[in-house]
Amino acid sequence: xxxxxxxxxxxxxxxxxxxxxxxxxxxxxxxxxxxxxxxxxxxxxxxxxxxxxxxxxxxxxxxxxxxxxxxxxxxxxxxxxxxxxxxxxxxxxxxxxxxxxxxxxxxxxxxxxxxxxxxxxxxxxxxxxxxxxxxxxxxxxxxxxxxxxxxxxxxxxxxxxxxxxxxxxxxxxxxxxxxxxxxxxxxxxxxxxxxxxxxxxx
Length: 202
Hints:
By secondary structure, the protein is mainly alpha-helical. The chain has one domain: Up-down Bundle (3 helical TM bundles of succinate and fumarate reductases). It has helices at residues 2-18, 21-33, 39-50, 55-80, 91-122, 129-136, 139-166, 173-200. The mean pLDDT is 92.
């Protein structure tokens, strides 16, 4: 019974990392990429997202609660997992370890990013191009954001591979190899979008 419960929790954890959290990540990267077209384009895109009906309900039940469960249970997995890369240095063993490390980095980054933007907005600050420009004008913060963005995208892309396996979508070794190349491609494509967006603000 306990084994089935943990198995189902891990599957739910994997699912929420892709739907809706992963989808939100992609949407967030797309909105940020409007910064490459200038301040007005980004502000219009950000304003559109903020003007969605039932925004607080959507943010709570589609983003924050799934993300909270994924983060808390992810920490449990990270600190109870038995990593064996020192003994078995296979590619997937390293990906397993890096998934746990990137998860912790991503959690720190997202917490800080939410504090700087959403919490600040709750106290009257406007989330716009100038806010991000001010944040990223600090070289230390730019470095922190680059590491955070790359870590977040890696965690999503590598987690997508695990999701496909745990949900029985990629069962054969060949399909898992193909999924590996696809998810690596997703990582590089989204990283390009994310890093290009960061530099657009400065």
